[in-house]
Amino acid sequence: MKKIQMVDLMTQYQQIKTEVDAALMNVIENAQFINGPDVQLFQKELEEYLGVKHVIPCANGTDALQIALMALDLKPGDEVITPSFTYIATTEVMALLGLKPIFVEVDMDTFCIDPATIEAAITVKTKAIVPVHLYGQAANMDAIMKIAKEHNLFVVEDNAQAIGSDYYHNDGSVSKTGTIGDIGCTSFFPSKNLGCYGDGGAICTNNDELAAKMRMIANHGQSQRYYHDVVGCNSRLDTIQAAILRIKLPRLDAYIAARRKVADHYDAFFAAFPQIKTPVRGKESLHVFHQYTMQLTGIDRDALVSFLATKEVPSMIYYPVPAHRQKMFSAFGSASTVLPVTDALTSCVMSLPIHTEMEQEQLDFICASVAEFITTHS
Fold it and tell me: Burial level of 340, CB count in 10 A (0-12/13-18/19+)?
């Protein structure tokens, strides 16, 4: 059996090797390493795939979030409502800009921000909501957008883990996640469902004014060379990465289908184990399974992780320490925030390998290994 990995990028590369190698050589031979034609072409192709007016490629997903918040003209001390149960990049950029993250609860089933907790957190200083589509599952955007409209708040979607997901609105229409709020942000980190071979990211919006401003911010605040209208940064998607993403984008839906097939297998197998709560697939969206994250009850999680390691089965805990308990936010007094659902999830979630090249033998071995631990430690 081939070695099991959380994400098997090498096998994925082998399947598209001819196209990737040719694309890389084309970039090198033309020596257009910055803002080459592949960047513009990828931008247009991603706009078409997402059904959005504007895509602004950038250097990484963290930059995407920072540029998005910079474009909203928020002031130091302004409050931004966001979940604590997420990767730190979501909230890190708020602190960098002098904004105050207001941490609220997530839904126990979907792991995404709980709209019911947003309303209670709104104050006169609240200016934006940043929902996170965690693990490949979309937050309840209809409810979030309703709250935002009622209180005149911006919505910036953190779509780094859910690109390609369809969101099913209450009125029957369908949107891609990341295109529903004022701005959507994503990452092309190699392990993402749509990943490049280095760092990369993108911002999307249907707002012409915001799009123009974000393009300026990402390019040193200039719309014309050497004329800088706003304070910006230097955040560009590398041409080589754009060339790779152009090859992968037409395969994204197939990659998602492959991940969902793996998730189906896990779901079916672990249905027999009451100690395991498999990921809930919310009715609002298509779960694209960036991660397969389950909840454990009555199981020593650390012992299971260690046991699987002896079997050379990798596993991960996303995320063991929520943002509101991180030292970096101590100045905001966030440690006193009471989020029992978030705290409960950080103590019981665990993610198993899931990627587009998983083989049946590997899946069977992973499931059997988990079952072996449960039956011998119950």
Answer: exposed
